[in-house]
Structures
1.
Amino acid sequence: GDSVTQMEGPVTLSEEAFLTINCTYTATGYPSLFWYVQYPGEGLQLLLKATKADDKGSNKGFEATYRKETTSFHLEKGSVQVSDSAVYFCALRLQGAQKLVFGQGTRLTINP
Amino acid sequence: EPEVTQTPSHQVTQMGQEVILRCVPISNHLYFYWYRQILGQKVEFLVSFYNNEISEKSEIFDDQFSVERPDGSNFTLKIRSTKLEDSAMYFCASSGSANYGYTFGSGTRLTVV
């Protein structure tokens, strides 16, 4: 079935470090791919998305590129801040479907 | 920025009781969803709702669950005869169209004791 696998957390980095959170997927057809972020005490917020192969989603310094050949959508940021501490979820949505299929989430903590 | 509002933020209920989780979607949105996240596990799709009927549901969404849009602004999830394993964070979401991104609420943490 369709699924999303994220790197295991938690991830702890120092401020200004480079961030990569890996995400791979299994899906029939060509899904749209998403990264959601959940800050403490808040709901899931859409961080970025890509709807077709080689698309790059970007927002708030975060980037992810839809790689069909490796079925991946890794999240990257060049220089993280303490305020980036949150749980990050990778997700897919199949073409024509409404539901999102989520990965297990990766908790990121940035230390000053 | 428009928000999806969920109430209560935390609910404790006894096993076997019925609970109703409430959501106020964004006012001009047409598609509504419930998801849940059991502690330490993935966020799981429960149900989607459009045009006053369920458009898709997961195998989790059995006869114990029901959804309703009683008054054109609220969207509720009812869980009949709660079980311990229903303890989870329940997220409501809405979207303006089937292809748009969702807006999620901040969740209701349900604890069944």
2.
Amino acid sequence: ELKVEQNPLFLSMQEGKNYTIYCNYSTTSDRLYWYRQDPGKSLESLFVLLSNGAVKQEGRLMASLDTKARLSTLHITAAVHDLSATYFCAVDSRAGSYQLTFGKGTKLSVIP
Amino acid sequence: SQTIHQWPATLVQPVGSPLSLECTVEGTSNPNLYWYRQAAGRGLQLLFYSVGIGQISSEVPQNLSASRPQDRQFILSSKKLLLSDSGFYLCAWDGSGYSEAFFGQGTRLTVV
């Protein structure tokens, strides 16, 4: 059974600071996804990481994937209040499909 | 362009009542379709997926069922709702040539 673990589950940080969210998964997979969820809303796709060593950046967020370590990171640079949300990582449980197993999510609060 | 529609957006139903949630996708053909649920204490969980008309696979045993009467229509149903069916239901699709799944806006179901 595929397991996806995120940490931390809760993160309170000041504006301007940097931090990293970690996502570990238990079985081999070459595809990892990061989503953002605002309260009461659906999932917004942030990054799709499709191979070992993949690194993607969008604004203050950067995601990377190490398939050998079964680890992905989401790095936040110089946080701003607008980044407050819950962030999920997800992994395909079966090759060739998008049957995703999600982590429990990291609730990020950026404090002015 | 492709779009996904879910309705209703919000639903309050009494215990023991039936349920029907609908999801339709526009602008693509032969999509894979998925129902996910986000519930307190259980995180985001894949409930059903479908690779074609009439083809439904269930990931977890539950009080719910799914049907795919048309290529781009996916329906989630229950004959008698339980309190534990409360949650945020998300429909998603993917298709050939896409490297990720796309989520609908969700239906928030409260069983009272």
3.
Amino acid sequence: QKEVEQNSGPLSVPEGAIASLNCTYSDRGSQSFFWYRQYSGKSPELIMFIYSNGDKEDGRFTAQLNKASQYVSLLIRDSQPSDSATYLCAVNPLGSSASKIIFGSGTRLSIRP
Amino acid sequence: NAGVMQNPRHLVRRRGQEARLRCSPMKGHSHVYWYRQLPEEGLKFMVYLQKENIIDESGMPKERFSAEFPKEGPSILRIQQVVRGDSAAYFCASSPEQGQYFGPGTRLTVT
């Protein structure tokens, strides 16, 4: 079992709709969770982090964490063509920023006009 | 630009040559992480360094790869006797309190 699993996609969503990206992780002791966006040929960009169960909202983005189910999701409201990218779920298993992050293989999101 | 700096951005090496990739973390950060991304794959952790110390090298291949972060100057990822399978994007990241912030990467091509 992979440590961090994501559906590779592509996930196609119409412009203006909600895009829902999902991720599961295997290490039950994980404490910190991150979502990165990566455009083709570019470096990953941190867009959200979450530590506590529940929802965390930042503009059009909402991260959701359910530690009991070992599940993290990212919702993007009012999807725009510029949101088309690969979204990487990442987990810090040791609960500190000062350690490695385990990445999922990413979900490709395509927003169709 | 106070972000993570990496150079060169593109590097071409013939099989058997050495590749040196450099990374300067964000100002004030003393933790550096190196990741490798193969084409169409996710990011794989390689090594975590602090100034003059390797903290975690569990993702480093056993041979040909080494990393350092000296007291002065950038962190260096060194690949000796490169092979075609080393062709990838190599990213460096540094961390404040939350999350890791990535540099633009070095794209290594081995011919």
4.
Amino acid sequence: DADVTQTPRNRITKTGKRIMLECSQTKGHDRMYWYRQDPGLGLRLIYYSFDVKDINKGEISDGYSVSRQAQAKFSLSLESAIPNQTALYFCATSDQGAPTYNEQFFGPGTRLTVL
Amino acid sequence: ELKVEQNPLFLSMQEGKNYTIYCNYSTTSDRLYWYRQDPGKSLESLFVLLSNGAVKQEGRLMASLDTKARLSTLHITAAVHDLSATYFCAVGTTSGTYKYIFGTGTRLKVLA
């Protein structure tokens, strides 16, 4: 079974709708992240969480919110989706200490299209 | 502000040839990471470089880090088609405000 899972894998929605993307991990990592990927722009950090009570904004948090329901679960919400939020979204986890030193482990991604 | 630049952005090379991808970053950083992404897939970690002069090798790929020059390289030796993918570097910090910035990626195509 995959260590980091994301649901749904694909989603088409309409402008103004609220949607939630979910991420679960079995790696036992405290740190979890949400990124979006757009062609030519690499990955950009939306939100990150270093533990259940710690939530931080990343580079591009406007229009997004998150919830860390448990160590293993981190959800991303688009309160009112707009077309320029069409992108590929990745969840990732990491462990600060040895031996991975914050090396990130990515989920399979969610392809979101906002019409 | 931490910025990460990769070059080239696109690279088409013949099988059997050698080439290097460069990753430059703008401010002091503790850690440098390389990832691979196949088309339509997720990212997979390749290397974690933790100190100046660090060198790591896996198969035909070798990564190095020069923190004084703020430069990391990913060298490809005798390329094969299976190495075709997009390669990202990412730079992280462990002090002050958390930063983990990805480069824009280098799309590598190895031609048979």
